[in-house]
Amino acid sequence: MQKTRLYLHEVATRDGFQNEGVFIPTDEKVALIDALSDCGYAKIEATSFTSPRAIPALRDAEEVMHRIVRKPGVEYTVLVPNVRGAERALSCGVDEINLVMSVSETHNRANLRMTRDASFEQLKAVADSVKGSELAINVSLSTVFGCPMEGDIEADDVLSWVDRYARLDVRGITLCDTTGMAYPSQVEALLKDVKTRFPSLMLTAHFHNTRGLGLANVLAAINAGIDRFDASLGGLGGCPYAPGASGNICTEELVHMLELMGYDTGVSLQHCLACSAELPRLVGHDIPSQILKAGPRLALHPAPDYVRDLEKPQVR
To answer: Is the pLDDT of residue 41 over 70?
Structure first.
């Protein structure tokens, strides 16, 4: 029987690194992205073309994109906040630009310092500026499953914003659990609605593990027909506008679970773990990955010596 194919997107080098307090040297970023390119991802979010003043950790975006080795079959996407960012991305020959806004009005004002309508107009200008190019456009909608300041977000509000961007002929929409408020039944119901209403959109689910429900939400999304997922190596990342919010779901934990369940992700768990093992050195602290600490389920260990001694005949 043919395995169900799922597509994984690695976001640690953008979503993870932008939250770190240290600047990771460009050489190290390039080496890591090149290593990730050999893991089998469908897409890698390599960096962000935001103002270097706003996100100094990613101030080397152009150099990173010019120096990485592009592997055929892997898409390289970057976050772009405005027309200037799109111009910078175009000059680097990226495959896709990722535009971000929040469905929550309060979170959008806190995160982007503007109203949702102002964000839409700014991102529409970005989409208009790249028309005629081969650049794909994805829109990441934050806080679709809940806002730490507003609470629940109405499904109709989410569907309305998806519709507004679908009318701009974007290729894809990522539905983001930015602050880890999603739960499985909610995920399945909302994503079924979105998939039914917008069958032509490439839909991606983006979960955080803030309350320990990240992988459970992935399974709910699969039940809803979603086959693309963002994940972050080592579980890096988080939202600075959600107190206590931890990082994205951990790539190697996701690959491990899906592999055990018989899904085909195309991603090598062994290669992921090798990349993840470099992260504590790069970021200067421990990382959330449990698989890196414990090893895969069938990483067996030798029995203690006393067990072998018990097998020997007893002398009386």
So the answer is: yes
